[in-house]
């Protein structure tokens, strides 16, 4: 651990963050031991104040003495761990401040008193700032995130550093596992931990464990390659694997019978691109959902600590298994490569300055090696893989396979793998069978470039199998018939059966196809021309298949028949597909005809009620002009409607509305609402009451129909206009050269609720006023809101020119709507 300079005062470590308030501390916090570490909970044992006291005071005193000795042992261990952290922090102060150990101890005590924290917690913070490693990162993030949670005590710095100190000071990996469980995982409610060592063959060896019985640890001391466990998944997938309940996964693992429904996590870790260890943690209860990020980082830091600990113990020969020298496999691996008849390369990992795997160096090439680009062995030996084969990382994925085998130890076998290299900037590709295996720190890469003739023969065989195609050649005379294996499958015959000559083909065909086959045979044998036909084959096993046969005669120089060669193909799937397509085509044609008929009926119904053109209405000094523009597409027949009528009270009914949806349903609903409103209007009720009644009709007498509408009554006696709206756009009043919408009365759309009331407003019209009532098809656009579209309309209608008919025609012509919806416009002008 190398200390690094801190920002702040030169030569002096930066002060730790301010202490947390007492309110943030948990009520049941553990009492600190002599070193400042929380004392672990007491194990189960006799209760000095229980029933045993009354029965036998001597036994109670003995139990109390045993309990006191246990507590003293735990406190002694905690004190030793705390002293190790404090001594390490003092060493950092000595190096930074250039002072004596005594002065460093006083400086640590002063800073702890000023910050209001214990010496142990401050020591862990100083070590984190000096180390800046994965443990420090996890501790700092945990403190910063846990500090925002009420009642959460941020002590991971002490826990992680104590676990690290105990693991590094442990005599073996077993003791390291116990230290990690006691200091770092017990506060997370974990009850078991296993450290697995990854072998070169992707096997797993239990290097250390804690929280499990000795018998359970012996049962799981070794996991062979290929056995699926949580640790195996983490090793092969190179990622952290979480299980809320281990029993749900169905994977066996250490301690499963003790905690079948407990949570489990397996974390891979290693150095230099090689996975050396897998840390597996066991909880007694199921995990509730994803764990917080700070807990995940803490567990990943512990896994990395396990990898470094395992590496250190293997290097000194302390690990559970025998230590292996890095080059132990080198001579044997070279001899193995030289004895192979295929091209073989021995690769060693090449690490970058940060200690991460960057590439593999080719340290040995066997004598029979043939480069796929035709280069000599000397051009390959000693080079990096990505230098010799720069396309290995992209075109073939070879480099990714090398990384996976080196990290996990799991061997790789691949057939027909495409290997590509550059020769004079020209890519050269070859298909090869590739094998990769790890031997200690080395990789053995073997490839066999496939022979072109064998590759083409295999390709042809697979093509015939996939295409259900069989080839034959029938010789003239007594030379016999040659079939490939697919022909026997087509005819439903065993491979030991005699091939069927073409002249016996009618015996295997449907009787109705005899004339077709006879014409095929005459063309082939009599006219000696290529021929083809399709027929129904009736096989001996009772299966009927649709077969196409294609054949051609082979003639000598005298045009004598030498042989006939050709192919049979099973086209049953194609035949039934064509039958299904024909039926589907007929059904689609029928559906299209029905849809067109429905659209035609809806359009006729719409035009019958609201024709696109209608003459103006002149009555009592009021001129009313209506324009209706149907949708441009017949399939979009909508529910826009309007109505203008003189009532018995001499008032003029003006209404416009829009039913949601398109098609015959919208058109019929529009008819219901329009006729209902006209019938209700003869009662003499006002616009608000009319819309209230129309809402009841919409809600109760239609099937889930909603609509918007405006209802207005013009009284020619006082030139007043009373109106109400149901979720519709407001009318626009043009007076002189100014235009603006009328005030909006309250009212929701029709059919939304069973009972509602609509507000009614009154407006007095003046001579030459023009009033526009319209549906949203006039202004609606996909790229803007209805409010913006209404403002655009108001800006264009403020200067009326010409008569009312011309004015409305120009308004429809220059409409900027782009939704192809129906449009209704009622123009009113007072003379």
Automatic annotation (TrEMBL):
GO molecular function list: phosphatase activity; RNA binding
Residue stretches making up the PAC domain: 531-583
Pfam families: ANTAR, PAS_3, SpoIIE
Compositionally biased spans, kind Pro residues: 35-46
Ranges for region Disordered: 1-57
Hydrolase as UniProt keyword: yes
Composition-biased stretches (Low complexity): 22-34
N-terminal signal peptide: none
Domain ANTAR residues, every copy: 66-127
Keywords, ordered alphabetically: Hydrolase
InterPro entries: ANTAR, Bact_Sigma-Reg, PAC, PAS, PAS-assoc_C, PAS-like_dom_sf, PAS_fold_3, PPM-type-like_dom_sf
Protein name, entry field: ANTAR domain-containing protein
Organism: Streptomyces xinghaiensis
């Amino acid at each position: 651990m190398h200390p690094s300079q801190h920002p702040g005062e030169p030569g002096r470590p930066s002060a730790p963050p301010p202490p947390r308030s007492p309110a943030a501390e948990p009520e049941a916090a553990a009492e600190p031991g002599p070193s400042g570490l929380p004392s672990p909970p007491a194990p189960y044992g006799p209760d000095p104040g229980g029933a045993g006291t009354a029965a036998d005071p001597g036994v109670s005193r003995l139990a109390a003495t045993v309990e006191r000795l246990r507590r003293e042992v735990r406190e002694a261990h905690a004190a030793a761990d705390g002293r190790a952290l404090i001594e390490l922090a003092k060493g950092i102060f000595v190096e930074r401040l250039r002072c004596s150990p005594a002065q460093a101890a006083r400086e640590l005590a002063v800073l702890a008193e000023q910050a209001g924290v214990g010496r142990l917690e401050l020591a862990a913070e100083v070590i984190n700032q000096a180390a800046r490693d994965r443990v420090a990162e996890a501790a700092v993030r945990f403190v910063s995130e846990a500090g925002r949670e009420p009642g959460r005590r941020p002590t991971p710095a002490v826990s992680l550093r104590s676990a690290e100190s105990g693991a590094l000071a442990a005599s073996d990996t077993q003791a390291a596992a116990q230290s990690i469980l006691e200091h770092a995982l017990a506060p997370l409610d974990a009850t078991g931990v296993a450290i697995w060592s990854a072998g070169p063959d992707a096997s797993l060896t239990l290097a250390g464990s804690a929280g499990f019985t000795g018998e359970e640890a012996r049962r799981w001391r070794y996991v062979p390659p290929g056995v699926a466990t949580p640790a195996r998944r983490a090793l092969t997938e190179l990622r952290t694997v979480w299980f809320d309940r281990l029993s749900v996964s169905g994977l066996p693992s250490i301690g499963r019978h003790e905690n079948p429904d407990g949570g489990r996590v397996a974390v891979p870790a290693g150095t230099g691109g090689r996975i050396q260890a897998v840390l597996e943690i066991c909880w007694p209860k199921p995990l509730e959902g994803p764990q917080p990020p700070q807990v995940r980082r803490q567990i990943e830091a512990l896994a990395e600590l396990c990898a470094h600990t395992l590496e250190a113990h293997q290097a000194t020969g302390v690990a559970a298994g025998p230590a292996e020298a890095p080059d132990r496999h080198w001579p044997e691996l070279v001899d193995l490569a030289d004895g192979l008849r295929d091209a073989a390369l021995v690769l060693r990992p090449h690490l970058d300055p940060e200690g991460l795997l960057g590439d593999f160096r080719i340290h040995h090439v066997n004598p029979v090696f043939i480069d796929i680009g035709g280069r000599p062995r000397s051009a390959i030996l000693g080079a990096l893989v990505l230098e010799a084969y720069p396309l290995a990382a992209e075109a073939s994925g070879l480099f990714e396979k090398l990384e996976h085998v080196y990290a996990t130890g799991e061997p790789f076998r691949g057939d027909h793998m495409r290997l590509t290299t550059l020769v004079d900037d020209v890519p050269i590709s070859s298909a090869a069978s590739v094998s990769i295996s790890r031997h200690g720190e080395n990789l053995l890469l073997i490839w066999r470039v496939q022979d072109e003739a064998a590759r083409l023969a295999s390709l042809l065989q697979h093509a015939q199998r996939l295409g259900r195609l069989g080839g034959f050649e029938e010789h003239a005379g007594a030379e016999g018939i040659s079939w490939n294996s697919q022909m026997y499958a087509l005819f439903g015959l065993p491979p030991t059966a005699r091939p069927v000559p073409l002249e016996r083909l009618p015996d295997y065909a449907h009787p109705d196809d005899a004339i077709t086959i006879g014409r095929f045979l005459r063309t082939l044998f009599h006219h000696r021309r290529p021929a083809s036909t399709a027929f129904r084959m009736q096989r001996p096993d009772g299966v009927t298949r649709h077969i196409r046969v294609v054949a051609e005669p082979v003639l000598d120089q005298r045009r004598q028949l030498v042989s006939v060669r050709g192919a049979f193909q099973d086209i049953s799937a194609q035949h039934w597909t064509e039958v299904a397509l024909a039926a589907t085509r007929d059904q689609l044609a029928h559906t299209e005809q029905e849809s067109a008929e429905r659209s035609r009926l809806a359009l006729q119904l719409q035009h019958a009620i609201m024709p696109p053109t209608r003459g103006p209405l002149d009555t009592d000094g009021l001129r009313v002009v209506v324009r209706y523009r149907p949708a441009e597409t017949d399939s979009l027949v909508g529910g826009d409607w309007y109505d203008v009528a003189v009532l018995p009270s001499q008032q003029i009914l003006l209404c416009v509305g829009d039913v949601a949806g398109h098609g015959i349903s919208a058109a019929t609903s529009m008819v219901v609402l329009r006729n209902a409103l006209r019938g209700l209007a003869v009662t003499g009720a006002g616009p608000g009451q009319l819309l209230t009644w129309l809402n009841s009709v919409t809600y109760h007498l239609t099937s889930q129909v909603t609509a918007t509408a405006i209802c207005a009554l013009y009284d020619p006696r006082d030139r007043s206009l009373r109106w109400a709206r149901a979720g519709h756009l407001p009318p626009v009043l043009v007076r002189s050269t100014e235009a603006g919408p009328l005030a909006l009365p309250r009212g929701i759309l029709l059919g939304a609720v069973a009972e509602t009331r609509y507000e009614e407003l009154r407006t007095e019209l003046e001579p030459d006023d023009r009033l526009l009532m319209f549906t949203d098809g006039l202004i609606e656009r996909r790229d803007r809101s209805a409010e913006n579209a209404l403002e655009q309309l108001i800006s264009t209608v403020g200067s009326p020119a010409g008569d009312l008919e011309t004015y409305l025609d120009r308004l429809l012509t220059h409409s900027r709507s782009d939704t192809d919806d129906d449009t209704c416009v009622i123009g009113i002008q007072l003379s």
